[in-house]
Amino acid sequence: MAATRRSARISAQSTPKLEPTTQIAPKTNGRKRKAPPAKDKAEAPSTPPRKRAQGNPTTPAAALPPLTPTPSAAGLFAETGSSIMKPRSATVTRLANPKLTNAPLLSPETLRLVASRDIETVSPSKAPQIRTTTENLLQEACDYLIKVDGRMKPLIENHHCRVFSPEGLAEEIDPFESLSSGIISQQVSGAAAKSIKTKFIALFEEQPESRFPHPSQVAAKSIEELRTAGLSQRKAEYIKGLAEKFANGELSARMLHDASDEEVMEKLIAVRGLGKWSVEMFACFGLKRMDVFSLGDLGVQRGMAAFVGRDVAKLKSKGGKWKYMSEQDMIELSDKFAPYRSLFMWYMWRVEETDISTME
After folding, report:
1. For the chain, which has fewer Cβ within 10 Å, the N-terminal or C-terminal residue?
2. Both 259 and 137 in a single domain?
């Protein structure tokens, strides 16, 4: 079972301890005391004091449910193949497949582009058979989601998913840089991750235009040298190990482009420093694969619970872990949206921002 990730920390305020008070009887001087003036509101009738229970008399405030926005780290897996922003070239319409990689990948070592075929290169005799391209992939997926469940319609109308749009599918991705960025970002703030990455790139002075280093360059560095960029011992080992796998050909842009979803997951989870959630986010946001679904993401779980009409504000924490929906329920619901579960997952992060009650 995948470990549930929190999208934000829960902060619970402690209730101040009440100090016992001692009532002092007023002194009397034999005179009659005047009755106190009448109050605007009638006081509740007094009741005999109860015997105070042992222990803390106050009840701690219930912890609020955690916030669950789209994981900010997911964006790091979709970083383009160069650290320097360049003008975008004209969008090229290519063949698309919801079960394969739809992003054009840069070979980390040679910067050679690995992508599906441009439809202009397809034989005219086969052109009429082409149905799914990078131009219409998102529209086909949205139509399918609405066909499966009409409650998806207001979500789709209110939120444009750029990830799988023609513009998003035109962005070139360096898989080594994307995965390394994901490792750098683990357990640090976004600002800290950017600072470390900048220092990391600066270690390789031979790189022109501050481009992310090639795997062979990183593999040649010692752990001690990599740590001078601000990496922990463990992260330096992870990135060096990842670089070695790309340098020796065990991982490649071609493999990540052509392999099945199952093969991609198996290969990348075997890399130290890459857990299941990280690989799922890379497959979805980096490789632009359309049929990825993360059971271990708390934001997806919460969104799905709200989607089916559960009051997520009333769900309680059990044993320190938030549980909005069982994994079996998540599987049964998400399977209906295959082979476009990545898009369904993206919308589940936004379901609480949209009123879908009118579609029920």
Report:
1. N
2. yes
Domain with 338, as residue range(s), is: 298-358
Asked whether residue 201 is domain-assigned, the answer is yes
Reported as a single tens digit per residue, the pLDDT across 239-253 is: 999 999 999 999 999
Cα–Cα nearest to 175, from 246, 115, 224: 246
Q: Is 80 helix (H, G, I), strand (E, B) or coil?
A: strand
- The secondary structure of 158-204, three-state, reads HCCCHHHCCCHHHCCECHHHHHHHHHHCCCCCHHHHHHHHHHHHHCC
pTM of this structure: 0.74
Q: List pLDDT tens digits, range 62-77.
A: 444 444 445 555 555 6
Cβ–Cβ < 8 Å for 109, 216:
yes
Does residue 162 carry a pLDDT above 60?
A: yes
Question: Is residue 226 a contact partner of residue 218, using CB atoms and an 8 Å limit?
Answer: yes
- Report how far Cα 254 is from the mean position of its chain's Cα atoms: 26
